[in-house]
Model the fold of this input.
Amino acid sequence: MTTGIDLSQPQAQAIRSDEDVVRVRQLVRTVAVAAKLSLVDQTKVVTAASELARNTLVYGGGGGVEVTIVDNGRRRGVRIVFADSGPGIADLDLALTDGYTTGGGLGLGLSGARRLVDEFDIDTGAGKGTRVSVTKWAR
Ligand SMILES: Nc1ncnc2c1ncn2[C@@H]1O[C@H](COP(=O)(O)OP(=O)(O)OP(=O)(O)O)[C@@H](O)[C@H]1O
Ligand SMILES: [Mg+2]
Done:
């Protein structure tokens, strides 16, 4: 399959609309296939990315994402980094609690995304925006 994109380079996508969230899902799926993730793991990482992209849009006021194939010498995987310059998250432990929401959602996006990936890192704080990095490895 040819995708017309150079997967040796990070792929950037803006997140400014619902359509962009769909584009993020498609991009992550394409890169996960290229990294040879199983169908189940593709779906897990796409689901996590969808939740994080929606948070970037809704709470972060929009932002962007970079999707990269990574290789640690043993495995290939997909790394996805979301960044926004929104209000940030003052209490990260609270935000990661199942059911906690400030927006009338289910409060399962962040906590669920964390469970669906192998590595999950957040850099955030009140007034400093939010950067979320997730990695899923092929097994
Ligand atoms: N990028 C972000 N910037 C600022 N706050 C955020 C960001 N992402 C998440 N949050 C905060 O963390 C809370 C929990 O996020 P989470 O995705 O778990 O739940 P939700 O988006 O409220 O509901 P759901 O994702 O289940 O529809 C959000 O309600 C919001 O307060
Ligand atoms: Mg959410």
Q: What stands out?
A: The longest strand covers residues 63-71.
